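Catalogue entry: protein
Contents: sequence, fold tokens
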Amino acid sequence: MKILVTGAKGFIGKNLIAELRNRKYDDIFEYDRDTDFSLLDGYCKEADFVFHLAGINRPKEQSEFMEGNFGFTSDLLNSLKKHNNTCPVMISSSIQAELVNPYGESKKAGENLLFTYVKETGAKALVYRFPNVFGKWCRPNYNSAVATFCYNIAHDLPIQVNDPSVVMNLVYIDDVVSELINALERNENKVDLFCEVPVVHTITLSEIADLIYSFRKSREDRSVPNMADAFAKKLYSTYLSYLPYDKFSYDLKMNVDHRGSFTEFIKTPDRGQVSVNISKPGITKGNHWHHTKNEKFLVVSGKGVIRFRKIDSEEVFEYFVSGDKMEVVDIPTGYTHNIENLGDSDMVTIMWANETFDPEKPDTYYLEV
């Protein structure tokens, strides 16, 4: 299948083309504002499907709205008509098409042009009135508040929120691309004349800003966002894509002594925390028990033994562990336990606890195994 994508270097175009290639759609005609206009005619002759994503939304002159959003659409459709090519045409419109402003009017004019073309040719039209689209590769400080907030906060720059109560309807780029590929494969989500992206997130500007600031702070408190929240998950992925190249990494606090080290890695409010424990050869750590706190140990390097004793018993149980075998050992409540490095090198253990450490209520009681 030969696919024509206009606006190929734009935000949606780049993401769409990347995923088309992932799905082995390799015969793609990429057309953008710097493409030789003469190539468009040949592309329209050969195309089996058209994604018309090109458009103008931040022109120097208002007249450019109509030239870019209506004029180029006219050129595209005339070229298809010239070659009697009635392949499906998807057009990227906007919810602004329902409003009276130069941008919205130009988008509405492009829609009407396509609907007229359909009546004349019998071709299939797929019109998407997108709300605000967010995700990786969106240009900041241009026409997306989310992109601007993510970029500025990731770069320690201030943001401006004129009205925190403004409600935004947002769609995520991966959801958009998934729907566009559904349309390509004749499984679009269509309601009357228009197609829709099924998942729309409604949220205020202040909530967006607060979330993004919490993402930045998560590096300091070693937390991760609530990935069960679909919007937070998508926004966090978006935020990370705007990190400066020299800020992909961040330091953790290592608590070091003669026995080795203990480093908290990740904390969550509802899934506990993950830490990295390093024990020197011959060292034993632990010798304590918990009422409610429970843990999982996974030795990933070195070898050792984990010992257990029920606090009202003298019987000791041993689990020999090694980085050569990925084996998780549960640490039940009511058992005092320790872990000893039996090897000649450092033993590295990943430790998960069902709750984050609270110094006011540690639920940890010393008792030798």
